[in-house]
Sequence to fold (301 residues):
Amino acid sequence: MDRDWEEAVEGCLGHLATEKSHAVNTQLVNRATLETFAAWLEKTHPAVKPQDLSGEHLRGFLQAQRARRRLAPASMKLLVVALRHLTAHLGREGILKQDLRPALDLPRLDRSLPVTLSEAEVERLLAAPFPETPLGWRDRAMLEILYASGLRAGEIVGLRLENYLREEKLLRVIGKGNRERVVPIGEKAMAALDRWLAHGRPGLVRPRTGGEIFLGGHGRRLTTARVWQIVQELSDRAGLGKKIWPHLLRHSFATHLLSHGADLRAIQEMLGHASLATTQVYTHVDQARLKEAHRRFHPRA
Fold:
């Protein structure tokens, strides 16, 4: 990569990591986009330096990526957001004199409603038999918490022993962007977690085991990929006959709370959403559920 562009990209990424506290995955996506952009410029416009950047260059890159990779609007949005960060950084540093925001309009996204499980399906999933073994106790505790607290897979593998505030019946969760929140944990989830911590986890501790609550058979923290596998295995055991993933339980957690009258802002806090607009999608899910019930059961529907 050209030295000028390397400095621009690294400066932008450094600012996002330190000042914006971007999550690791977000940092990786932005790095990949900006390095691809710099490589594209070097190939197609080798004389262009950061101070020469124009809307034409940005649009040309986006058009090339859309044509070559056939990207969906959601993927195009990731590219646009990364380029917006770069141009904002160049402006802050006084390198770029012109406003390039008009060249970086976000693509329109048709927002699909989250898929959820019914309450009966969740009960069936949690009622499935678990082996009376350390790993069986772990899996039950993990599944109970995923539904009881709406945690993401990455959040549950990052839970540490000191994050379990037992007396307060709370979990302290580090979410996206290193934002911290506290989430209530119900009695059934607490009982399953206490059993795992008292009778299952101690038997898996090894000399190099860290403070994570959930461990694999090797004594180290679980990966998010393994959590996905465990959830699907439990779905198969329950005979649900459908693909289940951790975020589906998070969506079900929020939807079921809303349908039982929970305040939307309380749900936002428990999910760790930065914006209420993100949480409001669950109101549409609940409306869709009510419409379907009316269609199926009203005599004149």
Observations:
- The CA atoms of residues 232 and 242 lie 9 Å apart.
- The first strand starts at residue 164 and ends at 165.
- The mean pLDDT is 90.
